[in-house]
Design a protein that fits this description.
Radius of gyration of chain B: 24 Å
CATH class of the largest domain in chain B: Mainly Alpha
Order of helices and strands of chain B: HHHHHHHHHHHHHHH
Strand content of chain B: under 5%
CATH topology of the largest domain in chain A: MetI-like fold
CATH topology of the largest domain in chain B: MetI-like fold
Low-confidence stretches of chain A: 1-8
Oligomer: heterodimer
Helix content of chain B: over 70%
Shape of chain A: flat
Distance between the termini of chain B: 47 Å
Mean pLDDT of chain B: 89
Order of helices and strands of chain A: HHHHHHHHHHHHHH
Strand content of chain A: under 5%
Structural class of chain B: mainly alpha
């Protein structure tokens, strides 16, 4: 339509509208340039670069030789890679569903309160406002084998982070303690969007609490649940901080995870090429999780 | 009727369970605070001292004297403020153009930003570190700030808010001869001030609490932000638990206070960023 009206216009108007168009282009380029420049340099370029690096024997900084798929061949034979992959999957298993379930339970607990609602909400959300190193230091003190309060109370000397069987579950528990408040907030927002009329009608029909939850709250809350589950999945695949601060991947590599494997290869063994190959595998896993998220939320939203 | 009485049983159970979970969730924080207010010897005694007596702030005084806490505060505040202001400013400019103007390459840019949601920044640490090293930005404020500026989420949020503005708003300003920058800062920004504050607070908290990247890029104690700095002093104190917890609390306190003051804005900011990632 725009082109049609332009052809009818006299020459002078056309040239001034063209000038106006270039004026807008100039303004637009000025507006998008700062971010776009940073985005290209600090994000798009590194994304391409990490792919290239994964086919070289580059150290952490500087150029390396092209080695073809050697890094990947080595990777699939590296028992630590499989260990890290398995541990990451284990951590995801221990956190994603429990963290979502507790988020929902806490949200239900908070919304039914008539008094102290603000206090209870703040109590559950507060840990989420702490930085990871504050969280791990508090829990290191609580679980200290010599003077930790739990060991004193039970009269034991148990060092949970030295136990290959329980170190990872403990890290998962601390992660839930730390982050569940975030999920709770999303669930509370989801519950508040459910119309009161459903509950009133259900109460009139004499439905009990169980029926009300499974027939009304749960199905209507599904889009929120799907959002929380997929956000959790992507976030927990990137686990590094808590593991590094609590166990450094030990004992006996029982808590070594993918991102930590990238970190140690790059920043401690200075194998930038090899680390890039590991990073790329993690990248692809998270990409798949993101695509799942996109699809689940698409269908979830249209229900 | 027996009905209200009957309904009280699950209600009572729920209340007890709530009290129990709140206790479990708050106990670690209480214990950290209690430990920090004790004299050192009393942190180690059995049976444990549930309430500090004598109550003392000595551990806090010692922490300020013996660690680089003030320096880390300064680093965190400086990098946090610069990062937050830059993210909001750059994203607002970019979002305004994408939302209101027609220009070549707009669709490519928009899809590139959406693609960015799927790429985990953590997978890029090797090339980004290499880049920072080539810019001599390792152990510098810019080294901490620059990689954290990539927040396409903020652009998409602003774009949605700008898209919701009535079209006549910009049209009439254009007829009055206003330039795009003036329209953005004099009309669009004031109307969207609420979301701007929410985003600013959530962004600042996120940057203040960020661990992974500052941990990679800073090796000298002087350049560390709070979350990285406090991991360095464990050995310096030996087994001084009151001091360790005092330091930990000083690291967590600013954000906790900020949250309690801006609770509504924090919640708003979290909703809008999380809802959008989906």
């Amino acid at each position: 339509m725009a082109t049609q009206s332009q052809t009818v216009r006299p020459v002078a108007v056309r040239s001034s509208s063209r000038r106006r168009k270039y004026q807008i282009w100039r303004a637009a380029f000025l507006l998008v340039a700062p971010f776009t420049l940073l985005y290209l340099v600090l994000f798009i370029f590194p994304t391409l670069r990490v792919i290239q690096l994964s086919f070289t024997d580059a150290p952490l900084i500087g150029a390396g030789k092209w080695v073809g798929t050697a890094n990947y061949e080595r990777l699939f034979k590296d028992f630590l890679f499989w260990k890290a992959l398995k541990n990451t999957a284990y951590f995801v298993l221990l956190t994603v569903i429990p963290n979502t379930a507790f988020g929902l339970i806490f949200a239900l607990m908070v919304v039914r309160l008539k008094r102290f609602q603000g206090f209870v909400l703040a109590a559950f959300f507060l840990p989420n406002m702490l930085t990871v190193s504050v969280v791990t230091r508090i829990w290191q003190w609580l679980t200290s084998s010599q003077f930790g309060i739990f060991n004193i109370m039970f009269g034991t000397n148990y060092a949970v982070f030295n136990d290959p069987n329980w170190a990872m579950p403990m890290i998962a528990f601390i992660t839930i303690w730390w982050t569940v408040g975030f999920n709770m907030l999303l669930f509370i927002a989801g519950i508040q969007t459910i119309s009161k009329e459903y509950y009133e009608a259900a109460a009139l029909d004499g439905a009990n609490g169980n029926q009300i939850f499974w027939r009304i709250t749960w199905p209507l809350l599904w889009p929120t649940t799907a959002l929380v589950l997929t956000l959790q999945l992507i976030a927990q695949l990137k686990i590094f901080d808590q593991v590094w601060l609590l166990t450094r991947g030990g004992p006996f590599n029982s808590t070594t995870v993918m991102l930590q494997f990238v970190y140690t290869q790059a920043f401690q063994n200075f194998k930038g090429g090899y680390a890039s190959a590991i990073a790329l595998v993690l990248f692809v896993i998270i990409l798949i999780a993101s695509i799942i998220q996109y699809r689940v939320l698409r269908t979830g939203g249209s229900r | 009727m027996t009905r209200p009485r009957r309904m009280n049983v699950p209600g009572l159970f729920g209340t007890l369970f709530t009290i129990f979970m709140v206790t479990v969730w708050l106990f670690p924080i209480y214990w950290a605070v209690a430990t920090s207010l004790k004299v050192e010897e009393n942190t180690l005694i059995k049976p444990p001292q549930w309430i500090p007596s004598p109550l003392t702030f000595e551990a806090f005084v010692r922490v300020f004297q013996e660690s680089a806490l003030l320096r880390w505060y300064f680093n965190s505040i400086l990098t946090g403020l610069i990062t937050t202001v830059l993210i909001l400013l750059l994203c607002m400019l970019c979002a305004y153009a994408i939302s209101q103007l027609t220009f070549p390459g707009k669709n490519i840019l928009y899809w590139l930003l959406l693609a960015g949601f799927m790429i985990p920044g953590q997978a890029l640490i090797v090339p980004v570190f290499e880049l920072m090293s080539n810019l001599s930005a390792v152990n510098s404020y810019w080294g901490i700030i620059l990689p954290q500026l990539i927040a396409p989420v903020t652009i998409i949020i602003y774009k949605q808010f700008f898209d919701a503005m009535p079209g006549e708003l910009r049209d009439s300003a254009v007829i009055d001869g206003a330039g795009e920058f003036r329209i953005l800062f004099n009309i669009f920004l004031p109307i969207n001030l609420g979301i701007t504050w929410a985003l600013a607070i959530v962004t600042f908290i996120g940057v203040w609490n960020a661990f992974f990247w500052p941990f990679l890029i800073t090796t000298s104690t002087d350049m560390m932000t709070i979350p990285v700095g406090i991991t360095q002093v464990q050995d310096a104190f030996g087994v001084r638990y009151a001091r360790e917890m005092a330091l930990t609390i000083m690291a967590g306190l600013p954000v906790v206070i900020g949250y309690l003051i801006f609770q509504k804005r924090v919640t708003e900011g979290i909703m809008v960023t999380a809802g959008l990632k989906g």
